[in-house]
Design brief:
two-stranded parallel sheet; 9 helices; Rossmann fold; 2 domains; alpha/beta; 42% helix; 8 strands; 4-stranded parallel β-sheet; 12% strand
Protein backbone atom coordinates (compact mmCIF):
# COMPACT_ATOMS: atom_id res chain seq x y z
CA UNK A 1 0.00 0.00 0.00
CA UNK A 2 1.60 3.29 -1.08
CA UNK A 3 2.05 5.96 1.58
CA UNK A 4 1.36 9.50 0.37
CA UNK A 5 2.02 12.79 2.13
CA UNK A 6 0.13 15.81 0.79
CA UNK A 7 0.97 19.37 1.72
CA UNK A 8 -2.44 21.10 1.62
CA UNK A 9 -5.91 20.02 2.69
CA UNK A 10 -7.11 20.22 -0.92
CA UNK A 11 -4.32 17.97 -2.20
CA UNK A 12 -4.88 15.62 0.74
CA UNK A 13 -8.55 15.24 -0.17
CA UNK A 14 -7.69 14.68 -3.83
CA UNK A 15 -5.13 12.01 -2.90
CA UNK A 16 -7.62 10.27 -0.61
CA UNK A 17 -10.19 10.14 -3.41
CA UNK A 18 -7.68 8.37 -5.64
CA UNK A 19 -6.14 6.03 -3.06
CA UNK A 20 -9.30 5.11 -1.17
CA UNK A 21 -8.54 2.23 1.20
CA UNK A 22 -5.66 0.97 -0.97
CA UNK A 23 -3.11 3.40 0.46
CA UNK A 24 -2.51 5.90 3.24
CA UNK A 25 -2.59 9.69 3.04
CA UNK A 26 -1.19 12.13 5.57
CA UNK A 27 -1.97 15.83 5.11
CA UNK A 28 0.57 18.20 6.61
CA UNK A 29 -1.54 21.34 6.94
CA UNK A 30 -4.52 21.40 9.30
CA UNK A 31 -7.86 22.81 8.27
CA UNK A 32 -7.74 26.59 8.25
CA UNK A 33 -3.97 26.87 7.79
CA UNK A 34 -2.61 29.45 5.37
CA UNK A 35 -0.50 27.50 2.82
CA UNK A 36 1.83 30.45 2.29
CA UNK A 37 2.95 30.61 5.91
CA UNK A 38 2.70 27.03 7.19
CA UNK A 39 5.84 25.34 8.53
CA UNK A 40 6.27 21.62 9.21
CA UNK A 41 7.04 20.07 12.58
CA UNK A 42 10.00 17.73 13.01
CA UNK A 43 7.64 14.75 12.96
CA UNK A 44 6.07 15.93 9.72
CA UNK A 45 9.51 16.37 8.19
CA UNK A 46 10.25 12.74 9.05
CA UNK A 47 6.96 11.67 7.45
CA UNK A 48 7.97 13.41 4.24
CA UNK A 49 11.26 11.53 4.11
CA UNK A 50 9.53 8.18 4.70
CA UNK A 51 6.73 8.58 2.14
CA UNK A 52 6.46 6.73 -1.15
CA UNK A 53 5.12 9.91 -2.73
CA UNK A 54 4.83 13.54 -1.67
CA UNK A 55 2.11 15.54 -3.44
CA UNK A 56 2.86 19.25 -3.31
CA UNK A 57 1.37 22.22 -5.10
CA UNK A 58 4.67 23.84 -6.04
CA UNK A 59 4.86 27.19 -7.86
CA UNK A 60 6.10 28.81 -4.66
CA UNK A 61 2.92 28.17 -2.66
CA UNK A 62 4.43 26.19 0.22
CA UNK A 63 6.91 28.88 1.20
CA UNK A 64 7.54 27.44 4.66
CA UNK A 65 7.96 23.84 3.45
CA UNK A 66 10.64 24.30 0.81
CA UNK A 67 13.51 23.11 3.01
CA UNK A 68 11.80 19.92 4.19
CA UNK A 69 10.61 19.08 0.66
CA UNK A 70 14.13 19.55 -0.66
CA UNK A 71 15.43 17.29 2.15
CA UNK A 72 12.94 14.61 1.12
CA UNK A 73 14.07 14.85 -2.50
CA UNK A 74 17.70 14.51 -1.36
CA UNK A 75 16.68 11.31 0.45
CA UNK A 76 15.27 9.91 -2.80
CA UNK A 77 11.57 10.52 -2.12
CA UNK A 78 9.45 11.08 -5.19
CA UNK A 79 7.79 14.51 -5.15
CA UNK A 80 4.95 15.35 -7.52
CA UNK A 81 4.27 19.05 -8.00
CA UNK A 82 0.71 19.67 -9.12
CA UNK A 83 1.73 22.89 -10.86
CA UNK A 84 3.74 20.95 -13.43
CA UNK A 85 0.59 19.39 -14.93
CA UNK A 86 -1.34 22.55 -15.83
CA UNK A 87 -1.07 25.70 -17.89
CA UNK A 88 0.24 28.23 -15.38
CA UNK A 89 -0.76 31.88 -15.13
CA UNK A 90 1.22 34.81 -13.82
CA UNK A 91 -0.18 36.76 -10.90
CA UNK A 92 -1.35 39.33 -13.44
CA UNK A 93 -3.40 36.65 -15.23
CA UNK A 94 -1.21 36.00 -18.27
CA UNK A 95 -0.29 32.49 -19.38
CA UNK A 96 3.28 31.42 -18.66
CA UNK A 97 5.13 30.65 -21.92
CA UNK A 98 5.81 26.98 -22.47
CA UNK A 99 2.69 25.53 -20.89
CA UNK A 100 2.54 22.51 -18.60
CA UNK A 101 5.37 20.01 -18.45
CA UNK A 102 3.28 17.18 -17.05
CA UNK A 103 6.27 15.34 -15.62
CA UNK A 104 6.64 16.87 -12.18
CA UNK A 105 9.86 18.67 -13.11
CA UNK A 106 8.70 21.94 -14.64
CA UNK A 107 10.52 24.92 -13.16
CA UNK A 108 9.07 28.43 -12.81
CA UNK A 109 10.48 31.59 -11.34
CA UNK A 110 8.94 31.84 -7.88
CA UNK A 111 7.00 35.05 -7.48
CA UNK A 112 6.25 35.39 -11.18
CA UNK A 113 3.50 32.78 -11.25
CA UNK A 114 0.14 32.33 -9.58
CA UNK A 115 0.21 29.14 -7.47
CA UNK A 116 -3.54 28.90 -6.76
CA UNK A 117 -4.26 26.32 -9.47
CA UNK A 118 -6.79 24.30 -7.44
CA UNK A 119 -9.43 27.03 -7.80
CA UNK A 120 -10.00 25.74 -11.33
CA UNK A 121 -11.28 22.13 -11.15
CA UNK A 122 -10.73 21.61 -14.88
CA UNK A 123 -7.02 22.16 -14.32
CA UNK A 124 -7.04 19.90 -11.27
CA UNK A 125 -8.57 17.15 -13.39
CA UNK A 126 -5.24 17.03 -15.24
CA UNK A 127 -3.37 16.92 -11.93
CA UNK A 128 -5.48 13.93 -10.89
CA UNK A 129 -4.47 12.09 -14.05
CA UNK A 130 -0.83 12.85 -13.23
CA UNK A 131 -1.19 11.48 -9.69
CA UNK A 132 -2.77 8.29 -11.01
CA UNK A 133 0.04 7.75 -13.51
CA UNK A 134 2.70 8.43 -10.87
CA UNK A 135 1.12 5.90 -8.50
CA UNK A 136 1.08 3.39 -11.35
CA UNK A 137 4.83 3.87 -11.75
CA UNK A 138 5.46 3.55 -8.02
CA UNK A 139 3.22 0.48 -7.63
CA UNK A 140 3.20 -1.27 -11.04
CA UNK A 141 1.46 -4.37 -9.67
CA UNK A 142 -1.67 -2.23 -9.16
CA UNK A 143 -1.13 0.15 -12.08
CA UNK A 144 -4.55 -0.47 -13.62
CA UNK A 145 -6.26 0.26 -10.28
CA UNK A 146 -4.49 3.60 -9.89
CA UNK A 147 -5.25 4.69 -13.43
CA UNK A 148 -8.91 3.66 -13.13
CA UNK A 149 -9.30 5.46 -9.78
CA UNK A 150 -7.77 8.61 -11.25
CA UNK A 151 -10.06 8.48 -14.29
CA UNK A 152 -13.14 8.14 -12.07
CA UNK A 153 -12.19 11.10 -9.89
CA UNK A 154 -11.08 13.15 -12.87
CA UNK A 155 -14.53 12.66 -14.39
CA UNK A 156 -16.10 13.81 -11.12
CA UNK A 157 -14.06 17.02 -11.15
CA UNK A 158 -15.12 17.74 -14.72
CA UNK A 159 -18.75 17.33 -13.65
CA UNK A 160 -18.13 19.73 -10.77
CA UNK A 161 -16.54 22.19 -13.18
CA UNK A 162 -19.74 22.16 -15.26
CA UNK A 163 -21.87 22.57 -12.11
CA UNK A 164 -19.80 25.54 -10.93
CA UNK A 165 -20.27 27.14 -14.34
CA UNK A 166 -24.02 26.62 -14.07
CA UNK A 167 -24.17 28.15 -10.57
CA UNK A 168 -22.22 31.19 -11.78
CA UNK A 169 -24.56 31.71 -14.73
CA UNK A 170 -26.66 33.72 -12.27
CA UNK A 171 -24.02 36.47 -12.36
CA UNK A 172 -24.57 38.93 -15.24
CA UNK A 173 -21.60 39.79 -17.43
CA UNK A 174 -21.60 43.36 -16.13
CA UNK A 175 -21.09 42.14 -12.55
CA UNK A 176 -18.32 39.65 -13.20
CA UNK A 177 -15.69 41.74 -11.43
CA UNK A 178 -13.92 40.69 -8.25
CA UNK A 179 -12.04 42.42 -5.45
CA UNK A 180 -10.28 39.86 -3.28
CA UNK A 181 -8.15 39.66 -0.15
CA UNK A 182 -5.09 38.55 -2.14
CA UNK A 183 -4.51 37.31 -5.66
CA UNK A 184 -5.97 33.85 -5.07
CA UNK A 185 -8.77 33.76 -7.63
CA UNK A 186 -6.79 34.19 -10.85
CA UNK A 187 -7.47 30.68 -12.13
CA UNK A 188 -11.09 30.87 -11.06
CA UNK A 189 -11.49 34.14 -12.95
CA UNK A 190 -9.70 32.76 -16.00
CA UNK A 191 -11.90 29.67 -16.13
CA UNK A 192 -15.29 31.26 -15.44
CA UNK A 193 -15.03 34.64 -17.13
CA UNK A 194 -14.45 37.09 -14.28
CA UNK A 195 -12.12 40.07 -14.00
CA UNK A 196 -10.12 40.82 -10.87
CA UNK A 197 -9.95 44.60 -10.50
CA UNK A 198 -8.28 44.85 -7.09
CA UNK A 199 -6.73 43.01 -4.16
CA UNK A 200 -6.26 44.03 -0.53
CA UNK A 201 -2.87 42.32 -0.15
CA UNK A 202 -0.68 42.87 -3.24
CA UNK A 203 0.95 39.95 -5.04
CA UNK A 204 0.30 36.23 -4.94
CA UNK A 205 1.20 35.61 -1.29
CA UNK A 206 -0.66 36.44 1.91
CA UNK A 207 2.70 37.24 3.54
CA UNK A 208 2.98 40.61 1.79
CA UNK A 209 1.88 43.80 3.52
CA UNK A 210 -0.19 46.47 1.76
CA UNK A 211 0.93 50.07 2.16
CA UNK A 212 -1.40 52.90 3.06
CA UNK A 213 -1.19 54.04 -0.57
CA UNK A 214 -2.22 50.54 -1.73
CA UNK A 215 -5.34 50.68 0.41
CA UNK A 216 -6.26 54.19 -0.67
CA UNK A 217 -5.91 53.12 -4.31
CA UNK A 218 -8.17 50.12 -3.67
CA UNK A 219 -10.84 52.31 -2.09
CA UNK A 220 -10.80 54.42 -5.24
CA UNK A 221 -11.20 51.30 -7.40
CA UNK A 222 -14.26 50.20 -5.44
CA UNK A 223 -15.79 53.66 -5.67
CA UNK A 224 -15.07 54.00 -9.38
CA UNK A 225 -16.35 50.54 -10.29
CA UNK A 226 -19.35 50.67 -7.97
CA UNK A 227 -18.29 47.40 -6.35
CA UNK A 228 -20.28 46.37 -3.29
CA UNK A 229 -18.50 43.21 -2.11
CA UNK A 230 -14.96 42.24 -1.15
CA UNK A 231 -14.13 38.54 -1.08
CA UNK A 232 -11.99 37.62 1.93
CA UNK A 233 -10.63 34.19 2.92
CA UNK A 234 -11.25 31.76 5.74
CA UNK A 235 -7.50 31.31 6.25
CA UNK A 236 -6.82 34.99 7.01
CA UNK A 237 -8.45 37.61 9.26
CA UNK A 238 -10.77 39.90 7.31
CA UNK A 239 -9.72 43.02 9.23
CA UNK A 240 -8.08 44.80 6.29
CA UNK A 241 -10.93 43.94 3.92
CA UNK A 242 -13.45 45.23 6.47
CA UNK A 243 -11.45 48.45 6.90
CA UNK A 244 -11.42 49.04 3.14
CA UNK A 245 -15.15 48.35 2.97
CA UNK A 246 -15.78 50.88 5.75
CA UNK A 247 -13.72 53.53 3.95
CA UNK A 248 -15.85 53.21 0.82
CA UNK A 249 -19.02 53.90 2.70
CA UNK A 250 -22.42 52.71 1.63
CA UNK A 251 -23.22 49.02 1.69
CA UNK A 252 -19.99 47.17 0.94
CA UNK A 253 -20.04 43.65 2.34
CA UNK A 254 -17.19 41.26 3.06
CA UNK A 255 -17.76 37.61 2.06
CA UNK A 256 -15.25 34.95 3.13
CA UNK A 257 -14.44 32.20 0.64
CA UNK A 258 -12.64 28.89 1.08
CA UNK A 259 -9.48 29.47 -0.91
CA UNK A 260 -6.40 28.11 0.86
CA UNK A 261 -8.03 25.38 2.93
CA UNK A 262 -11.03 23.12 3.17
CA UNK A 263 -13.60 23.95 5.83
CA UNK A 264 -14.37 22.56 9.25
CA UNK A 265 -17.00 19.82 9.63
CA UNK A 266 -20.44 21.26 8.94
CA UNK A 267 -19.06 24.14 6.86
CA UNK A 268 -20.26 22.75 3.54
CA UNK A 269 -16.66 22.82 2.34
CA UNK A 270 -15.27 19.66 3.92
CA UNK A 271 -14.07 18.22 0.59
CA UNK A 272 -12.54 19.81 -2.49
CA UNK A 273 -15.75 19.22 -4.44
CA UNK A 274 -17.86 20.81 -1.70
CA UNK A 275 -15.43 23.72 -1.41
CA UNK A 276 -15.72 24.61 -5.09
CA UNK A 277 -19.51 24.38 -5.07
CA UNK A 278 -19.79 26.42 -1.86
CA UNK A 279 -17.48 29.15 -3.17
CA UNK A 280 -19.41 29.33 -6.44
CA UNK A 281 -22.68 29.63 -4.51
CA UNK A 282 -21.28 32.40 -2.29
CA UNK A 283 -19.98 34.36 -5.28
CA UNK A 284 -23.21 33.93 -7.22
CA UNK A 285 -25.22 35.02 -4.19
CA UNK A 286 -23.09 38.12 -3.71
CA UNK A 287 -22.95 39.21 -7.34
CA UNK A 288 -26.08 37.75 -8.92
CA UNK A 289 -29.46 39.37 -9.46
Amino acid sequence: MPSVVATTTVLGDIAENILGDKGTVETLMPIGADPHGFQASARQGASLREADLVVANGLGLEEGLQDVIEAAVADGVRVLEAGSYVEVLTVSGEAVPGGPGGDGTQVHQVGSVDPHIWLDPSRMADVVAGIGETLAEIDPACAENWRDAAVAYRDELLRVDAEVEEILSAVPETRRVLVTNHAALGYFADRYGFEIVGVVIPGGSTLAEPSAADLVALVRVLEREGIRVIFAETTRPANLAAAVAAEVGGEVSVVSLYTGSLGEPGSGAETYVEMMLTDATLIAGALGD
